[in-house]
Design a protein that fits this description.
- The chain is an alpha/beta fold.
- It folds into two domains: 158 residues, 3-Layer(aba) Sandwich (D-Maltodextrin-Binding Protein, domain 2), CATH 3.40.190.10; 92 residues, D-Maltodextrin-Binding Protein, domain 2.
- 43% of the residues lie in helices and 22% in strands.
- Helix 10 crosses helix 11.
- It is globular, with a radius of gyration of 19 Å.
- The two termini are 22 Å apart.
């Protein structure tokens, strides 16, 4: 129970700046709902949701594709881009066409971005690389210099101008050039079991998330200021960053996500492209 006597819905929060517009209104009390917030990297939230330890959560698109039978999508809410995203970057010491046979360092924290990178390099560029997993920031600080690496979230923005990696590809732009569609990196899901057990609180929590999106959309300057203060970036940088993100889940975003799933199935990265099934609000 929360302090109003309602059943508290366990809500997963990605620990990145890009979801600040969704969670700040809730955490500050400007938008209310029966919510208890749990913050973690995307991969950890996926594990918590699968274990039944979250009811509603931000979730990687890849996680939804991997366990769609366990989840409903929250309508009208996603996180993606219609081009340049700035926070999902492939940085390389070599031109991308010369990465064949080379190694690319990726983070364990993201499944969707790694899957998109594999599709890009295999199908769009036509190179075969070896993927290794590890902490990129720590490796660079120790003097290690992988041939290329995938950076996501706040780390991507901090490393985007690294002098040893002059070749940079924004994966949001890569996808738009390839498909002419938005790319959805993450969604919000409600566990089907939670929606069946506590339908009222779960739906109220999901409505609060959409309300929070609208609250922040009406206050872009405040969002930029808050993100700059939290992340150590400038307000103009954050303003530009959030202008490049998509939080709506309209028809084109649905098309973009469905095409991504179809490509994953075609590449045998997932066994079958799932249908998009939404929680009835």
């Amino acid at each position: 129970m929360n302090d109003t006597g309602e059943t508290a819905v366990r809500l997963g929060r990605i620990s990145y700046l890009n979801v600040l517009p969704i969670y700040y209104p809730i955490e500050s009390g400007n938008v209310r709902g029966p919510l208890s917030v749990v913050s973690a990297p995307p991969a950890e939230l996926n594990l918590l949701a699968r274990a039944g330890k979250l009811d509603v959560s931000a979730c990687s698109s890849f996680e939804y594709a991997s366990a769609a039978d366990d989840y409903f999508l929250v309508p009208d809410l996603a996180i993606g881009s219609r081009g340049h995203v700035r926070s999902v970057l492939l940085l390389s010491r070599l031109p991308v066409a010369k990465l064949d046979g080379k190694s690319v360092r990726v983070s364990y924290q993201t499944h969707t971005s790694v899957a998109l990178l594999k599709l890009f390099l295999q199908q769009r560029v036509g190179v075969d690389v070896t993927y290794t997993t590890g902490d990129v920031t720590r490796a660079l600080a120790s003097g290690e210099r992988p041939d290329a690496f995938l950076a996501i979230g706040d780390e991507a923005m901090r490393l985007s101008a690294h002098p040893d990696y002059p070749h940079r590809w924004d994966l949001g732009s890569v996808w738009l050039d390839w498909t002419a569609l938005p790319f959805i990196f993450g969604v919000w899901i409600a566990r089907r079991a939670a929606a069946a057990e506590n339908p009222g609180p779960v739906r109220e929590a999901c409505r609060a998330l959409v309300e929070a999106k609208d609250w922040s959309k009406a206050r872009p300057e405040l969002v930029a200021e808050l993100a700059a203060a939290q992340g150590g970036f400038t307000v103009p940088d954050m303003r530009t960053y959030f202008e490049g993100l998509v939080y709506d889940f309209g028809e084109r975003e649905k098309d973009g996500l469905s095409v991504f799933f179809e490509k994953l199935e075609g590449a045998r990265i997932i066994p079958k492209a799932p249908k998009l099934q939404f929680l009835e609000m």
